[in-house]
Design goal:
Number of helices: 5
Strand content: under 5%
Order of helices and strands: HHHHH
Helix content: over 70%
Distance between the termini: 50 Å
Shape: elongated
Number of strands: 0
Structural class: mainly alpha
Largest sheet: none
């Protein structure tokens, strides 16, 4: 069964991948000869944005999902994987802060009711 990244998270992951792709292309020694879509096409970026972060937990999964070659995977999958992991950690941190904040609000509301 295919699972998907929640729609509200997709634009943020897409922005993260776009920023990474621009930097990767600038730092690529073949930047004059290799277009960014050869690194990560718009369609493949869309596929990554739609995929559940749980499905993107390995280099092989990323390469397979995008239908890329082993050679491509050796060159780019680890970098994309690191970017997705970084995004996932940031998202997890944001959720933790939101949970703590909502818990404090709930405790404050209960305290107010008690008094």
């Amino acid at each position: 069964m295919q699972t998907y990244c929640p729609i509200v998270e997709q634009p943020n992951l897409d922005k993260c991948l776009t920023k990474w792709l621009n930097e990767a292309n600038k730092n690529n020694h073949l930047w004059g000869f290799r277009a960014t879509y050869n690194i990560l096409s718009d369609h493949n970026q869309f596929l990554l944005g739609c995929a559940s972060l749980k499905e993107l937990k390995s280099l092989a999964n990323i390469t397979r999902l995008l239908g890329e070659t082993v050679e491509w995977g050796c060159e780019w999958a680890a970098l994309i994987f690191a970017e997705i992991q970084s995004y996932d950690k940031h998202l997890s941190d944001v959720r933790d802060v939101q949970k703590k904040a909502s818990g404090k609000v709930l405790v404050a509301k209960k305290a107010k009711i008690v008094h």
